[in-house]
Amino acid sequence: MRRGPQRPEEPYRINERITAQRVRVVGEEIKVDVYPIQQAIKMAQDQGLDLVEISPNADPPVCKIVDYSKFKYEQKKKQKEIKSKALKVVLKEIRFGPNTDEHDFNFKLKHAENFLKEGAKVKATVFFAGRSIVYKERGEILLLKFAQGLEEFGKVEQLPKLEGKRMGMIIMPKAKK
After folding, report:
1. Is the peptide bond before 56 cis (omega within 30 degrees of 0)?
2. Which residue blocks in the chain are alpha helix, DSSP H?
3. Strands 22-26 and 62-66
């Protein structure tokens, strides 16, 4: 067993690491066709490039004649672009007590409206401290009233649910038109 820093496994097989006997070769200035592996590697070496297996599951596997380091750089760039376009979901939490006053409720409702307008999900939580757990119904009524106040900005993703001493509900923003 080797110790020390391990090199990460390469995602693509190149040149001699390709195991297929015959491969379909694509690339610039190349006739797309099926070639024996040795001939395909020779074609790549003649151009000073590498033979990279792009689609190993195809029959026969598809290989491309490219500069491998440049190819890896392009792949990383594509992955980064895909990642940056992925939607990041933000979850904002708003906490209540079972006896939250009307003014405090409206204040938190306004904050939740702003969060939903920004595209964040809102998790509304009623925390039952001490013996206030006997007011479970009040907590549920409060959360449903909260959802009703936000129905033009978002829709309920998860109905009020009691988990220990907390009752929570998740509201997601409505799709923008």
Report:
1. no
2. 37-46, 68-85, 102-117, 136-149
3. parallel
